[in-house]
Amino acid sequence: MAYRHYNRLLYMYVLAIVIIAAAVGYLAAVNKSLFLVVILCCAEFFCILAFIRMLNSTNEQINYFIQAIKNEDTLLRFPVKNGSKIVDELHKSLNELNVVLQQTKLKNQVRERYFSEILQNIATGVVVVNEKGFITDVNRAALDLLGLSTFTHVMQLERVDKRFKEDFVKVGNQQQQMLFLRRGNETVQLVTRCSEIVVKDERVKLLTLQDIRGELEKKEIDAWVKLIRVLSHEIMNSLTPVTSIAQSLKGIWKKRVETSDAFLNDDDVESTISGLDVIGERGEALIRFVRSYRVLTRVPEPNLQPISIRSFFDRLTILVSPLREELNGNVMFKSPENDFHFYADEQMMVHVVVNLVKNALEALAGDGNGKVEVEAKNSGGNTEIFVKDNGQGVPDEIKDEIFIPFFTTKENGSGIGLSYSRQILRAHGGSLSCRSKPGETVFVLKW
Hints:
It contains 10 helices and 12 strands.
């Protein structure tokens, strides 16, 4: 806003002070009437006094407004028709500024309420502690994890678990620690992360608490459910025909016993032999199934040796050659430009890579443009091997199940290859993962 009246009066005061000062100087220089000089000096004094009073009046209004804002009094309103155009202009500007501050405060309150609701509804516990140990903010998840109804100071944790309180206080900035909280007869494992921030000139710690036991139990239950579903399917596939055939054979021979018919015709003999063959076949299938299960429970300890990636790829090229011919597939091993060594059990790693290449070739069967590429890299001390194919990809509905033991989409598959391969990588302290989309599937070995 242009303060026209204020600026006009300001210029007038300054101009009058300058002119009077110049006149006094001139009269004093030419030794004119002393009385006139005194009169002009008095006029200069009163002009300066009026100028200062005007500035002080404006400053008082602004200071009053600032104090009201400090006290969060945004309802303050200044009269815009005060009789003085200068004051009216100032009041109008202060009222407009107050409206802007009100809107900003309202937006901040809405945003604060929004984030407060988010904080209260997330599953991760959040605690904000100042340097004196007072809790400035805490959400419901944190209270539930700590077993407290209210949490105002870290000393309250001594009533729950004194050791936990000591560890909780020691967590430093940018640290992540595993803390154990004893609540009654149970022990809760909490992953704690800490960040130090400055809020209103006060340094506080923002700590997050997460109960990993609950998450692990949930994932464990999910894994068991999926495993039991696969086991049930496999066992039922073998037992159903066995039970049905056994009942049929029992009916045949029971009927002969009841009728005292000792004569055996060829059909009965043939049916009995066929039924026994099926029972034997399904029994052998169940034995193979149990042996496969034993394999998963007996992963040997890896014998770690330094291995050259290029010699490793050369060996794989030879071992994969029969698969190329059998499945008529295109497999490329891309050795890195700079050879490097990694530590692993070579036999185990060969088993994993060959199994992944075989799976990829079987998935590409019948695709004339299908190809499998195997690459490797070493960064930050970690070794990664990538097995890629350009097939149709893994369907979304089974992406989470391909590593479950005995889960398979192949007609004659055992369903243990990927699960066993992942266990081998875990024995090496690494991981086996898969990312897939139409046209590209990549299995990543990392350790």
